[in-house]
Specification:
With 69 residues, this protein is of the alpha+beta class. The protein has one domain. Helix content is 38%, strand content 16%. The chain has 2 helices and 3 strands.
Length: 69
């Protein structure tokens, strides 16, 4: 059995609150547009997801900035 490639794990809107990300869809769109949150991948007409490693790196960056302040 091979290990899952974390570059291919996708997070949906339902997964984000489990990571502590409870932002509204419009806020996520605004943050993405300003480069302050990873860009989503469009999976279909009404379906989007984010690459897990990008979201986790974003959360880690926020934590590092908090510790540096």
């Amino acid at each position: 059995m091979t290990a899952l490639n974390s570059n291919k794990i996708l997070l949906t809107r339902d997964d984000l609150p489990r990571l502590g990300i409870t932002l509204s869809p419009s806020t996520l769109l605004r943050l993405e547009a300003h480069g302050q949150f990873p860009k989503r991948l469009r999976l279909g007409d009404r379906s989007v997801a984010w690459l897990a490693h990008e979201v986790l790196a974003h959360v880690e960056t926020l934590a590092s900035a908090r510790e540096a302040a």
